[in-house]
Structure formats: structure tokens, C-alpha cells
Amino acid sequence: MRKQPEQQAPPVQRLRIRYAKRGRLRFTSHRDFSRAFERAVFRARLPMAYSSGFHPHPRISYAGAAPTGSASEAEYVEIGLAAVVDPADIHAQLEEALPAGLDVLEVVESPGGSLADLLEASRWWADIEAQPTEAAIAVDAFLAADSVLVERMTKKGLRELDCRVPVVSLVAGPAPDDSPAGARLDLVLRHAVPSIRPDDVLRGLAQVSAVALGPAPLLTRIAQGPLDEETGEVRDPLHARS
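RE: above sequence
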């Protein structure tokens, strides 16, 4: 008879971590990041809590990962610990253990509840080839449409998705002087089912206009968290009630 696995004690502390994907590390997939993060946890010798069962694994919960190829200043992960520690110490240890470009920005103690449930929307910047005037015309056409259908290959095959419905706001302006792009789009996108990504919105934008996106628009997630329905702003999930 197979021996029953030892039951692990529940975490005594949970920490929520905000990190960034920058530069070439934006091409890191979620699987690649999870491997790098687990290696960093072991290298830093954090007092991790573990799951029960025949194959215990460290208590790490990932939430709302950005698509591969997108930069981000607002990625989140929660860890469970077997001892109470100072979040500032964990911040310093992880920052030292992770490669440059996967940068820890903030570590706070979890107030409880679900971190994933707080991630209701994201704010994105999309740097595109078009000039600001051309981009603004395209944005007006997109926002005037009741529905903009695009196709995307999913695990279940080719699907047709409405990329207009989850768009809370979309504004075109000039790209920064240090950017090779002509225009920057400021997009607030509600998290929905099925999920609509910023590249879906860009394809929809091109579908309703002749806007020039360029060969590789740079996508950067600026914020991710609760959506203020009155202002359309995306708030900080690390300092919001669960």
C-alpha cells in the first residue's frame, strides 16, 4: 500500500510582488518566467511554503501574464511563505537573484482574498509607425464602430472575436522623441472572456482604417488592476481592497 504523503502546513505569510519585463526580456514567455522565478526563489533561499501531495511545489500563484513579446511595468505574482519576513528583504533578495530585465518593483504583504480577481483591466501603450494625425483618424473610426471582428488562432482553432467591446478608452498622440515610432496609442482594455489582447485591437484598428502599424509595434503594459468605472482609470491592485 502506497504511503500517504505528508501534509504541509499552510503559509504563515503571503506576499504580492509587482515586477517588470523590459528590453529583450519582453520576449520571455510565461513558462520561461515561471522557471526563472522559481530558480530565483531557490537561489535566494526564501522560506517558501509548499503544497501537499506526492509532488510538493512552492506556493507561487501567477496572475494576468502579458503576452510574449510585450513589455510590461505591471506583472504580478503571489508567494506563500513558511516564516514571516520583511517584504523589503524579499524585494532585495529577488532583485539580486533575477536577471536584469525581469525587475522587481514592489513587494507587499497580502491582505487576503484573490489577487487575480483584482486584475479587472490593463492600460497599454502601443507605439506604431503612423503619424499622430493618421492614428487619431483611425482611432475615431474604431471607437465609432459598434463591433470590430478579428480572427485569432486559439487552442480550439480559428476564432472570431469582437475586439471593440472590451475597449474602455483609446487615445492617439505623438510617440516620445526617443522612439522610432510616429504615434503612441494609450489603450485601456477591460479583461474579458474570451480574452482580448492589445494586438487584437491593433488588427481591428487596421481593419477599419488604413493606419500604418509598422512591422513590429511595441506594446507596453503600464498598469493592471481594478477598473474605476467612473473615471476609466486602472488602479493599483497592491493597495486596493480584495
